[in-house]
Design brief:
single chain; alpha/beta; nine-stranded mixed β-sheet; five-stranded parallel β-sheet; 19 strands; about 25% strand
Length: about 500
Amino acid sequence: MTQKIIILDFGSQTTQLIGRRVRELDTFCEIMPYNKFPKDDPSVIGVILSGSPYSVHDPEAFKVDLSQFVGKVPVLGICYGAQFISHTLGGKVEKADSREYGRANLASINLDNPLFKGFEKGSQVWMSHGDTITAIPSDFQVIGSTKDVTNAAFASTKQPIWAVQFHPEVFHTLQGTQLLKNFVVDICGSKQEWSAASFVDSTVAELKAQLGNDRVILGLSGGVDSSVAAVLLNKAIGDRLTCIFVDHGMLRKNEFTQVMDDYKVLGLNVIGVDASAKFFTDLAGVTDPEQKRKIIGRDFVEVFNAEAKKITDAKWLAQGTIYPDRIESLNITGKVIKSHHNVGGLPKEMHLQLCEPLQWLFKDEVRRVGRQLGMPEHLITRHPFPGPGLAVRILGDITPEKVRILQDADDIYIRGLREWGLYDQVWQAGAILLSTVRSVGVMGDERTYEHPVALRAVTSTDAMTADWAHLPYEFMAKVSNEIINKVRGVNRVCYDISSKPPATIEWE
């Protein structure tokens, strides 16, 4: 039985970072809504309570019955989680005189407490809270303080409960990984057996049991997620997997042919379908980003169903859905951030059952699994590309001519990144056509009134957060000059220097 840490999500923007840090400790974890703790699950070895945008005193604050797990498995509260533990068990939480945000140092640490094993005195931590814990419950003791926060860390003297007012999951808490390792490995007793190799073995076994002798169709996108899912399924069920690669007309330049060639190398059974005419017709005049995604999701399923009818015994649709897709599609408050092509766009009337073998993995974990499966490196390191393709990189309505313009500009940009040895240094890159904007220019002594193109490149590890890539000025100048000179319809090039958050990686 796989050991797991349960992370109860109270709505923090960094909850997913906690999950990634735990996974990096070769320990499986599940991020669950605060009110969905799994009952009677013997595989749970510990619980982490996340931060939250709420105060424990807010009427709408998220609350959980601690008796479900306190005293049964070790518990760690982080920020709001720490405040909730204190508030619920008899301590006191009050509004701070000023928001405590940013770097701080642990002026006092109880190095004998197992949570702080291996810590250095004065270790830097990261605070981000508006309330502060002014009194801890009677059976707790302080184990860490900063200059301004007395109860920065505390622990129960009777039960395995720890709480920290700072965020160990973020980069700025310099020994945060050590703290989480102390909790997950030393306190909870993780055997650290969850790895790419163990994932492949267990998932292949689960797929065989789940699918039996059924035939499966996989909707390929050409990206690393669906490619890894295909190879994993092929390992589990062999020739009972049929892959369908739909060309919706908004792929990168020459991508359909290149991807089909790649899949031949992998030995996959792939049917290529050119459905670009249908997608362009249905997208005509549509400018709303969510509507674009919904139409593409709907059309994808319609095209797939047309092919599926030719495979009469197919019972499953497999997809390369990964964890960030599912997390971002619906946050804890129930507000849609954006629909993903393989999450929010699937109509209810789809008659096949869904199989999503990668649904618990972050992107970097998918790549590790791909390497474990022996896939070619150029497929594994391929940048993420949105399911709706260039449709969400064209602001405004979609036309074949706009796609042509963006394909040409994007091709120059991506080829340039490869030629300069920059491609593998960035997480994701692409061009965006600002087709709702025109700018004045001069080319060949003549006035032009054409579209700007924005270039985007970010560094990241899991797409949950991202920073803009600091590409060399010489490279940017060369690419800008080449795009303006060679791509008809573009007379200006900009570079997007927004980070996520507050921006997203894609523009739509």
